[in-house]
Specification:
The chain has 13 helices and 15 strands. The chain is α/β, with parallel strands linked by helices.
Length: 277
Amino acid sequence: MSLGTSSGADRLVVMARGLGTRMRKADPSVGVDDRQSQVADTGVKALIPIDRPFLDYVLSAAADSGFRRVCLIIGPEHTAVRNYYTSVVRQRLTIDFAIQDQPLGTANAVAAAETWAQGEAFVTINSDNFYPISALSALRTLPAPGAALFDRDSMLAGSNIPPDRIEKYAIAQIEDEHLSRIIEKPTPRQMQQTTCNGRLYLSMNLWLFDASIFTACRAIGKSARGEYEITDAVQYMIDKLGQRFAVARIDAPVLDLSSRTDIGPVTQKLRGTEVNL
């Protein structure tokens, strides 16, 4: 059984390969400007302009949290992302790229970073989520592997994500301050039984991994959705590899930029946020 190793991770893997299907969907009722509409049409959520590309805010928060080396997982067609992050002025971050040839799921995306990781611990995030600095800072200093889990009440109070979406999110089962299971589509009974000190905790795809994640990503099969899911790889690590996932419990919200309806609320919440890459 792995007992974990001290990480102090400064490597960050950003999954930016998705097709952006929901973002591509036009919505005449949503007020977005011409430039935002043009980028939304491409589905590249990382580049949605909120004064500057959304991913800039995500990466700036990561740099504030102590990360210095970034790997963007992109598709071979994502030349706009590569061109922008190759040329943008950076003082705190080095940015590299890894290619996920086909959008085959989050575990397949993480697997694309194996060579770049060089056997070191790293944190993985979504490119369409803005995570609080408190969560990024807490996670990177945990023993690897680990997970940041988010208090559902804090998400309901402070996120731009509608309550009906949050209430359908997978919940985390915590035992002895370690993650034991992610429960997708939980029943009311499961939610009642899975509270931790009276609170429910959600997984928002914020993970700290060591090199064993790559073994798990290769071992799992496709999910019912036809994708290789990072949650399945995590469960494989726990059940088959004997890994213990340390937990950072976070009482702060995550912002989500999945569709055009999210652009306005996210813009409001990020207004005045300074960016320093």
